[in-house]
Structures are given as C-alpha cells and as structure tokens.
C-alpha cells in the first residue's frame, strides 16, 4: 500500500465538516471515507454523500460480515468505516481522510498505525461548542445536551493525537488542517522505509 490516512476527530459541532470543506482546495486529491451510521439523516444530508444511512439490523449484518475497519457506538447510534473502499484508495496511493470519533481513532491506529496521522479539532471552549451546536440548529435540545456531555469526555483524549487544531477562525483552522494533510501524505510506512534502505545500498 502506498497511500496515507489522516484521522480528524473532535466533538460533534467542533467544525470537522466545515474545515475539511474549506481546506479541500488546498490539499489536492483525496478520498473522504464516507461512514455508515444508524442515526437519522439531518435536514440536507444525503445518503451516500454525508453518510450511508442504514438500519440497526443492516449495520449488525455488516459487523457479522466483517465489513468494517472499525465501528463504535456514539451518542447511542452505530457509526462505522467500511474497509473495502479504504483499502482500494490506499492501494491507489491516495490520502484517505476519516472524520471519526476518538474510539475510532484508537482502533484505526491499532490496526493501521503505520499509515496514520491524526488531528483533534475543537472550538476554544466548551461554551463556544455549545453555542455552535445551538446555532447549527440541526438537533433537538436533548441531542445537543448529549453531544455536549460526550464532548466533556472526548476532550481528555486530546493527548492521543499528533496535532490539535483550535477552530476559532475558520480560515486559520483550515490552513492548519491543510498543512497537516499535506504532511500526512509524506509520511512513509515502515515497509516503504525498509524498501528505501534496501535499494539505497545498491
Ligand atoms: P462537525 O462536523 O464537527 O460536527 P460542523 O462543521 O457541522 O461540525 O460545525 C458546527 C457548526 O459550527 C456549523 O453550524 C458551522 O457552520 C459552525 N462553525 C464551524 N466552524 C466555526 C467557526 N470557526 N466559528 C463559528 N462557527 C463555526
Ligand atoms: P455526527 O452524528 O455529528 O455526524 O457524528 C457524531 C460523531 O460520530 C462524530 O464525533 C463523528 O466524528 C463520529 N463518527 C462519524 N463516522 C464515524 C465512524 O465511521 N466511526 C466512528 N468511530 N465514529 C464516527
């Protein structure tokens, strides 16, 4: 495999989608891993674009069939990354970007750490996160409260990541993300390093 993986994690409402979209023109070609979830689509979300939306039963079939590179329960719903398209993209030498939670980051790092660069993104404060979740107006109060509670746990995983992005001003955070993405492309796996050493002698 020749590609590289960039994991972006952070609380719901941290600005992951916003920052990936803003940074896209600065990071060249990449493959965004579309996750599968059992949560309901939000207004404006499209199946096969934002997520693959499936039922609980369909998701559990996928688990049994070994379809997922990783999966986790987040805010009471299943979320998972399909293995096949990720492997294909890596074999094609692409940068693969994951928007997954901190549990998913641990699992991907354990399985494919050789290829992984990771970044945690957060607004400057918990109060600002809460403000943005209400301003986004896509979730009910009870769902927002659950996401805020989850964020209070997730922030403690910040030291597991290679980089942290404080999403205060969008252009600045997007530029930082682009720098990290372009560095992630340059990360060499141990197989590549071994090949380098072997050919270097000749
Ligand atoms: P995530 O993908 O991490 O759940 P979103 O990208 O949906 O988060 O961002 C959550 C909300 O915050 C959206 O309404 C978005 O427009 C807004 N937002 C993102 N970044 C900023 C920022 N730097 N300042 C103010 N609002 C922001
Ligand atoms: P949301 O419902 O706001 O789209 O996402 C909720 C949380 O689930 C976010 O932290 C997001 O990063 C995470 N998430 C999305 N897809 C996946 C996935 O495939 N695996 C894991 N482990 N987490 C995911």
How would you portray this structure in words?
Residues 3-182 form the Guanylate kinase-like domain. It is found in: Cytoplasm. It comes from uncultured Sulfurovum sp. By secondary structure, the chain is α/β, with parallel strands linked by helices. The mean pLDDT is 95. Helices cover 45% and strands 21% of the residues. The longest helix has 17 residues, at 170-186. A hairpin with a 2-residue loop joins strand 5 (68-74) and strand 6. It has a single domain (4-200), classed as P-loop containing nucleotide triphosphate hydrolases (Rossmann fold, 3-Layer(aba) Sandwich), CATH 3.40.50.300. Helix 1 (16-23) crosses helix 7 (170-186) and helix 5 packs antiparallel against helix 6. It has a five-stranded parallel beta sheet with strand order 2-7-1-8-9, sandwiched between helices. A four-stranded mixed beta sheet has the order 4-3-6-5. The two termini are 23 Å apart. The protein contains eight helices and nine strands. It is globular and about 65 Å long. The chain binds adenosine-5'-diphosphate and guanosine-5'-monophosphate. Adenosine-5'-diphosphate binds at residues 10, 12-18, 132, 135-136, 167-170. Adenosine-5'-diphosphate is lined by residues 10, 12-18, 132, 135-136, 167-170.
């Amino acid at each position: 495999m020749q590609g590289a993986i960039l994991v972006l994690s952070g609380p719901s409402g941290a600005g992951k989608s916003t920052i990936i979209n803003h940074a896209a023109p600065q990071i060249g070609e990449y493959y965004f891993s579309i996750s599968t979830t059992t949560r309901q689509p939000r207004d404006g979300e499209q199946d096969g674009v934002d997520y693959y939306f499936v039922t609980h039963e369909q998701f559990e079939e996928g688990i049994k069939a070994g379809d997922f590179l990783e999966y986790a329960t987040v805010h009471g719903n299943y979320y998972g990354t399909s293995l096949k398209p990720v492997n294909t993209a890596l074999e094609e030498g692409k940068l693969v970007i994951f928007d997954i939670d901190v549990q998913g980051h641990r699992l991907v790092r354990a399985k494919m750490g050789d290829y992984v660069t990771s970044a945690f993104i957060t607004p400057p404060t918990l109060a600002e996160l809460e403000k943005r979740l209400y301003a986004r107006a896509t979730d009910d109060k009870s769902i927002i409260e659950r996401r805020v509670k989850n964020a209070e746990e997730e922030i403690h995983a910040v030291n597991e990541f290679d980089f942290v992005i404080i999403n205060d001003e969008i252009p600045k955070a997007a530029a930082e993300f682009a720098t990290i993405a372009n560095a992630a492309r340059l990360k060499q796996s141990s197989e590549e390093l071994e090949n380098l050493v072997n050919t270097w002698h000749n």
